[in-house]
Design goal:
This protein is α+β, with helices and mostly antiparallel strands. The chain has two domains: 214 residues, 2-Layer Sandwich (archaeoglobus fulgidus dsm 4304 fold), CATH 3.30.2170; 42 residues, no CATH class. 32% of the residues lie in helices and 25% in strands. The chain is built from ten helices and eleven strands. The strands form two sheets. Strands 1-7-8-9-6-5-2-3-4 form a nine-stranded mixed beta sheet, with helices on both faces. Strands 10-11 form a two-stranded antiparallel sheet. Helix 8 packs antiparallel against helix 9. The protein is globular and about 65 Å long. 34% of the residues are buried. The model has no long low-confidence stretch (mean pLDDT 88).
């Protein structure tokens, strides 16, 4: 095993290459890109009931051919005074091929399936993530059934979109507080063609609070006063700049602090069926099979 002294600085050519790579990630003149955009101001905060949808998933066990995972999805509806109107959460175990992306696909389908039911509790529906046809086309159909009487808003904290053709995403642009910008129609059509946006949606970049991030906002349905309502729900001190209902439903459905509950259920069921040894052999810990050979080798280092 090679141990490097803390004062070791590496090969000069390596450091020069690293300097060039890092410098290209975020050019120092990136703020100038905003000067070319017609950025609009968000009006005074408006109050309206909203409902937020999110989901979480986690792979619990695998033997290399079959895997067992769990999905937890739900929605929560708020009135403008932050009083909870309705909460709905459901969990389900899945047996699937070992490929983890299949679990994410199923989670997305389940999140989309909640849009219609959620729309019964508020006229404005907040969806965690983009309104896209990736990874499946269910979103388009769900919006067709809903947006005649409700508005669906996709909120993305991260995005690979860069309509200014920069080496960084548009969500890294330093927008001023309470401003937004609509992506040009030509770029919107390109996104629709690539399935990264549903046909009925418009795309915006917005900063909803001085201490918040720049967000990608997709709107399907009536867009009037959407940003003013988002501004109201993004002023909560625990998560300034991000709609609080989405933060709350994320806390409810995320599995990082609930995984052990489902692991225990799976272990008890496999033990009941005489498969306790197999449970420990295929149990997944931090994304790796706990008894996998590479895990054993890693523990020897």
């Amino acid at each position: 095993m090679l141990l490097l002294h803390p004062s070791y600085k590496g090969d000069g050519r390596v450091r020069e290459k690293l300097h060039s790579i890092v410098a290209d990630i975020m050019p120092t003149d990136h703020a100038k890109a905003l000067d070319r955009l017609e950025v609009a101001m968000i009006g005074d905060a408006q109050k309206m009931p909203v409902v937020a949808i999110d989901g979480g998933s986690s792979m619990l066990w695998s033997n290399g051919i079959r895997s067992i995972g769990v999905i937890r999805v739900g929605f929560i509806a708020y009135d403008p005074s932050y009083r909870i109107i309705k909460t709905h959460v459901k969990s389900e175990f899945f047996s699937l091929e070992s490929e983890g992306s299949l679990l994410d696909l199923e989670r997305h389908k389940q999140e989309v399936s909640l849009i219609k039911e959620a729309s019964l509790h508020a006229p404005l529906i907040l969806f965690d993530g983009a309104l896209s046809n990736i990874p499946d086309k269910g979103m388009e159909k769900a919006l067709e059934k809903t947006t005649s009487y409700a508005t669906v808003v996709g909120v993305s904290k991260k995005s690979s979109m860069s309509f200014i053709s920069a080496p960084y995403p548009d969500t890294w642009l330093p927008f001023r507080p309470n401003t937004y910008y609509e992506i040009p129609d030509a770029e919107r059509k390109r996104m629709v063609d690539s399935k990264s946006l549903v046909k009925s949606a418009r795309v915006f970049l917005a900063k909803l609070h001085g201490n918040g991030p720049t967000l990608r906002i997709d709107i399907s349905g009536k867009s009037k006063e959407v940003f003013e309502v988002l501004r109201h729900y993004s002023s909560y001190r625990l998560c300034p700049g991000y709609p609080f209902p989405l933060e709350e439903i994320h806390r409810i459905v995320c599995l990082s602090d609930k995984r052990e509950i489902y692991e225990h259920q799976l272990r008890k069921e496999m033990e009941h069926q005489g498969l306790l040894k197999e449970y420990f052999k295929g149990k997944i810990v931090k994304g790796i099979e706990s008894n996998g050979f590479h895990s054993v080798l890693d523990n020897l280092v």
